Amino acid sequence: MIAAAAGLVPALVFLLLYVLCRRHDRRMLRNGVFLTAAVLFGAAAVVSILTAVVPGFGIVVGLVVLLVPLAVVALGVALIVNGVQMLRREGRSLGNLLSLVAGVLVFVLPTVAVVVFAIATDGEQDVPDTLAVSAVVLLVFLCVYVALAFVAFAVYSVVYGRMRFREAPDAIVVLGSGLVRGEVPPLLRSRLDRALALYRSEVAAGRRPVLVPSGGQGADEPRAEGTAMAEYLLANGAEAADVLPETASRSTRENLRFSRAVQTEAGRDGHVVVVTNNYHVLRAAVLARQLDLPAQVIGSPTAPYYVPSAFLREFIAVIVEHRWLNLVAFLPFVAFTGFLLWESFQQR
Fold this sequence. Notes:
- By secondary structure, the chain is of the alpha/beta class.
- It has helices at residues 2-6, 8-24, 30-53, 57-90, 98-120, 127-161, 186-204, 225-235, 252-265, 281-290, 307-321, 323-346, and strands spanning 171-175, 210-214, 272-277, 295-300.
- It has two domains: 83-163 and 306-348, no CATH class; 171-302, Rossmann fold (3-Layer(aba) Sandwich).
- The two termini are 42 Å apart.
- 31% of the residues are buried.
């Protein structure tokens, strides 16, 4: 019982780290890591305590563990179905393929690992078999690492997106996304409507923040996103003097940086609220922090079918942007696999 209760210690440590780091800056990715670690360690400790004090609870835990493979299968099927839906509704592109590819990998990777492990351990092992088993072990570590990182990212994206900010904005920046035949599509309209709702509430409170619709012209667009967004804002009640479009940016980082220049030129260099879709809030907030902007990010609703693929795209972008940090974090797993391989050779 004492040993089970001691498992709460790491959960409390990670919870304390989460609270301190969140108070320091809500926009840090490590907040999600600490929060997820606190929840996982806390859940493990609670299960251990209940198993020790509640008769028969261990059987319940065992049944839940047996259901894990079914949950993985259900996840894979759901991702594949969502991937097909994305291709039908949004067209063929690399970004729209992500949920389909992820669903296929849910089935392929465990199958490959089991087959390679079975072949490599069938009979007397030689050097190639030992290397194959080590590769399987490293693949398992990689999958677990990526899965936990994604859970941390997704959990904190939801948590951050539900936070409320008290600072009155001097400017409201709306991040652009692709136009459809030069017009604002539903995804982008959702961002603009969220920005308009905030703008109207600020005007009702006696304040006049500027609206900065931000987005340049893509290769497949007849005009700049910022121009089309400004037209929408004006057509839906925003004052012309309060709408300052930014039409040169080509990425989220440029959206934020170029919009800041527009605000500064207009004499509005106070607090900023950035509006994007809910799946994009955390990455946009991280970029705002990297640019040292006094900005927080709020999200607008997204069609449910679009969310899985969008979250995967955002997660991959974050992994790529922090590739060296992730490489360093994964090195202990590589070292451990190398140690197992070395031990295997030593025993020959």
